[in-house]
Design brief:
Elements: H1 7-32, H2 34-42, E1 44-50, E2 57-58, E3 65-66, H3 68-81, E4 84-90, H4 95-100, E5 106-111, H5 114-117, E6 121-122, E7 127-136, H6 149-152, E8 158-162, H7 166-174, E9 179-183, H8 186-194, E10 200-204, H9 205-214, E11 219-222, E12 228-237, H10 243-258, H11 261-276
Parallel strand pairs: 1-4, 1-5, 8-9, 8-10
Antiparallel strand pairs: 2-3, 5-12, 6-12, 7-10, 7-11, 7-12
Amino acid sequence: MVRFFPASLKTLFVCASLCGALLGQSAAQAAETSVWQDIQKAGVLRCGAAVAAPYVMRDAGSGDYSGYFVDLCKDFGEKVLKVKVQFVDTSWDNLVAGLQSGKWDLAMALNQTPERALAVGFSAPATDYQVSLLVNKDNPKVANVADEIAALDKPDMTFAVMSGTAQDKAITSAIRNAKIMRLPGMDETRLAVMSKRADVLVDASDTNHLFALANPDWAREILPKPALAKQGVAFGIRRDISPADMEVLNIYIKQRRDNGEIQQLVDKASLQVNAAK
């Protein structure tokens, strides 16, 4: 049976529907901007900082941070969000967990991996990444080694890597016979290879390249074939970030990458690393 409603009731239903839609839209818009709005209300953007030159560096004396991800985080906070920027010292083992627990708002220089994407969100990549190997030319065990990882994957070989990093994960999945020496920092891994306690240093290609240039008398970099863990390097962000908030960060990164500004920051950080050596 068809029922007819008075015009006044029809008008009431239409108004109620419109109000509901507007309220729903307002609530959705509020949710979409909550991450950056919360940071703006707090007045500070907290950036998780695990040291790995030239991405993130920390002066041992002053405690000041530098590196091109540090520059990007500071610039985004101060010029886009209009807030102060605070760098929170952490390790690579805790960088993702700290982001999940709200200890910082952005995690700097995270390699984009599917496993990490299950736990955190990623911005657009600021730069690209690849794992390389570095050996001590004075070590007779690696004097004539080829570029294939298989040539180094022997029981008498030891790989030194910073614990909890993307390099750690990459080399762990790539070798079957050699030993892995996991150490807490970059300096420790380099010293292990310099002293021949380890035979191979595993690190990001740009980092290893800088180190090899600074130590041409003994260091040789190897770009393994096939490429090992080639991926983007990005900011880590909470997984519940809205598409609208993520777009703000992605537009910022894309513009700075497209106009060459990120490469300029990379070059500046690289010069700083070499000067320190």
